[in-house]
Amino acid sequence: DADVVVADWAEFECDADVGAGNWRPRHADWARLVRDGTEIACATTFWAPPAAILYRRSIVDRIGGFRNDLPIIQDARFLFDAAYHGAKFAHAPHCGAYYRVQPSSLSRRDPAKFWLDVLRNGEQIEGLWRDRGTISNIEKQALAVIYDGAARVLFDLGAEEWHRALEGVIRTGTKPSPSVRAGRYLSLFLGQRVARKALAFVRRKLFCA
Question: pTM surpassing 0.70?
Answer without folding.
Answer: yes
